[in-house]
Amino acid sequence: MNKTLEGKVAVVTGSSRGIGKALAHGLALKGARVVINGRNEARLLETRQALREKGFDAVAVAGDVSVFEDCRKLVDETLKAYGRLDILINNAGLSLEGEVEHADPDAARRIIEVNILGCVYPTQAAIPHLKKTGGSVLFISSLAGIYGLPNFSMYSASKMALTALAQSLKIELGGTGVHVGIAYVGFTENEPGKMVYNTDGSLVALPKRENVKVEPVGKAARRIIRMAEKRIYRSTFSSLGLLLSAINRISPSLVGMILSMSYKKRQ
After folding, report:
1. Is pTM, for the whole model, over 0.85?
2. Please, what are the domains in the chain?
């Protein structure tokens, strides 16, 4: 493995499992020192142990990215452990499956808090230190950030917000040496136990997607890491995402029509 990130320090939010966990492993393989984060401390420590058993340098900082003080602590603990910060990957996120009309208000609020403020707060805490290293801040969006997906309206709204955040931040940080990137990830494999909010506000197991091609989590992680290495601003991963993005630029109404027909067939 070419250790292109040797000596760099990377923070990955929501990294106790899934893409975040794969990102932590992939960054460590590239030579980075990794700080992992999540709300479930027990699961987070298990992930840290797994990384250390492979000889990787990793620190775990438990916390909720929708709480600014937890994000300040995440950055402070990173600096305490390693003295610098080079890469922040805003990966933590939640999903709510269901129509707007029936969505539990508290669950809807939670999606906005975690998926938007949970990217804003770590970024705010990290920017002064990323300016010192000429580092990178990346946002993990999805197909839902290209065009709103029916039955995932709150999730779509939060992921679309990341596009505006990345666009604004790219301009604000112009000339500082800080790289800003946003990844539009397609359908990706999930670990067992992945939960989403139901319309009644309860957490339920993520439904299996029939006839949907999913990208291996490791492949998605490698593509995100490449964005940091090559300082790429925008990347759309799946062929479906590329097609959706291309059609949306030409005729957003056509995308809406296609999604509407698909949604009605599932009802």
Report:
1. yes
2. 9-239 (3.40.50.720)
